[in-house]
Recover the amino acids of this structure.
């Protein structure tokens, strides 16, 4: 339940520092107590909270690959430098990545077999008896060195396998510290980075456009009809229809890949344009084509009509820069006017029987509307006094989602906080077009609210619409310190 975990899970801190704003204002007015300190302007501020986590040293270099052939892993590490009172650094001390060496020569002994064989002929199990050992894969933890005594019906676990041992033959995962980890597309073991639809590792599907259309020409005669050009670079291509007609595919050289020259090809896998095209036919009647791409040349999708065309659904993802030329070409060939336009999000499964109505093209997202004016002293006061946190932050990252924007920020200087802030926080804005927008790698003064999730397990820093977010400057810093003295009691 709740929201995705921020860099620091802001949990269980609901009791902490529940000093209301007004109390800080009181303290600030008189500088009573040990906490508040005087700044250069002579006004008082709450004490800075705990100094947060320590700092990592830079990563060391990657170690040599753990194996000399086939797959292995290499590792690098870093250290946490902590000053007194600082917490441990966040993150891992070690990072593991997959390394791919040339294939092992035929007959080479696999890594796990080698580790079992080390015990061959040695007395084990507290007796003088010796055994020959081979890997045993039926035991619960595949990252334990479970070895079967050849000719006997028992196995023994000799502790963990060495790091870099495949979890099981043919599996993708490798054992690291007794756990089976698989690599993300960034090559890091245990990483959850995946390739997006555009083929970018960890991308957000934003460097390509999704083309999804239905070809509805009825066909005035039996024979081959052009359905669509599938430009070079297309990915995740799918085409399907339910009729006794046949899809045909032509390569860039004008030669048919399948169903050409009035001859029906068998269902199966075909190589074309640098990718594998999977062609299936079912007695629905129904036909599908699929290819992962990216294609290395243009393909022409056609249909061989034998009966009226009930509609051919097709879709693919196209690099942004290829969309314009594709669209222009489709128009020249007269293919587009009656066809729905591309959508960028939420592709429907091809099985969906719905007809997609024609739309106007949306090649890029709607530009954001202008933001309301949020300048002025009253606005600053309102937000300083009303908010739960005021701090200076560097914007490190931004993720736009359908209904909200998430900024990752590094907290630089805290002016006001009603519970502890960590060095890294997420700040959420309630729109994909937040106002005011924050630029990457810039320093801002932010006033944020704390918003607790409905199940009470997590809280968020919320930058409200038209809230207080101004580029940090010494002048703005002074103004905000002055504002602190004017909060109503
Ligand atoms: C990219 O698009 C696919 C298919 O629509 C979707 O499943 C996936 O979650 C999207 N990825 C991101 C990062 O939005
Ligand atoms: C189909 O498209 C190809 C390539 O653009 C073109 O050469 C051909 O004439 C078209 N065929 C028909 C029937 O429109």
């Amino acid at each position: 339940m709740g929201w995705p975990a921020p860099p620091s899970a802001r949990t269980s801190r609901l009791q902490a520092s529940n000093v209301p704003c007004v109390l800080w204002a009181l303290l600030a007015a008189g500088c009573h107590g040990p906490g508040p300190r005087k700044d250069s302007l002579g006004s008082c501020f709450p004490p800075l909270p705990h100094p947060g986590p320590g700092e990592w040293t830079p990563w060391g270099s990657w170690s040599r690959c753990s194996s000399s052939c086939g797959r292995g892993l290499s590792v690098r590490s870093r250290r946490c430098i902590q000053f007194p009172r600082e917490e441990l650094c966040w993150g891992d001390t070690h990072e593991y990545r997959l390394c791919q060496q040339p294939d092992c020569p035929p007959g080479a002994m696999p890594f796990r077999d080698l580790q079992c064989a080390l015990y061959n002929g040695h007395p084990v199990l507290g007796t003088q008896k010796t055994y020959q050992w081979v890997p045993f894969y039926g035991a619960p933890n595949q990252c334990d060195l479970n070895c079967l005594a050849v000719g006997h019906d028992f196995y023994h676990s000799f502790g963990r396998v060495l790091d870099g041992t495949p979890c099981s033959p043919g599996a993708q995962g490798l054992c690291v510290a007794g756990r089976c980890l698989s690599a993300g597309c960034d090559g890091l073991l245990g990483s959850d980075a995946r390739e997006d639809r555009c083929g970018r590792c960890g991308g957000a599907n934003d460097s390509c456009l999704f083309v999804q259309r239905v070809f509805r020409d009825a066909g005035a005669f039996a024979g081959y009809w052009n359905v669509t050009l599938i430009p070079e670079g297309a990915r995740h291509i799918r085409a399907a229809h339910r009729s006794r007609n046949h899809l045909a595919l032509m390569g860039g050289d004008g030669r048919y890949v399948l169903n050409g020259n009035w001859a029906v090809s068998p269902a199966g896998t075909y190589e074309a344009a640098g990718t594998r095209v999977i062609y299936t036919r079912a007695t629905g009647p129904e036909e599908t084509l699929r290819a992962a791409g990216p294609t290395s040349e243009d393909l022409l999708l056609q249909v061989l009509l034998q009966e009226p065309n009930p509609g051919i659904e097709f879709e693919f993802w196209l690099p942004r820069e290829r969309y314009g030329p594709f669209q222009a070409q489709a128009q020249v060939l007269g293919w587009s006017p009656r066809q729905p336009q591309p959508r960028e999000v939420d592709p429907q499964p091809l099985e969906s029987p719905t007809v997609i109505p024609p739309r106007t093209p949306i090649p890029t997202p709607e530009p954001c509307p202008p933001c309301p004016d949020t300048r002025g002293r009253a606005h600053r006061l309102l937000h300083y006094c009303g908010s739960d946190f005021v701090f200076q932050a560097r914007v490190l990252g931004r993720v736009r989602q359908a209904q909200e924007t998430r900024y990752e920020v590094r907290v630089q200087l805290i002016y006001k906080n009603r519970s502890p802030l960590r060095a890294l926080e997420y700040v959420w804005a309630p729109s994909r077009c937040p106002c005011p927008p924050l630029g990457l790698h810039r320093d801002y003064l932010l006033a944020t609210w704390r918003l607790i999730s409905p199940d009470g397990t997590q809280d968020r820093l919320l930058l409200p619409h038209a809230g207080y977010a101004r580029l940090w400057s010494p002048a703005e810093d002074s103004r905000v310190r002055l504002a602190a003295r004017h909060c109503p009691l």
In short: Residues 53 and 87 are 4 Å apart (CA to CA). Residues 208-333 form a domain with the Jelly Rolls fold (CATH 2.60.120.830). The radius of gyration is 31 Å.
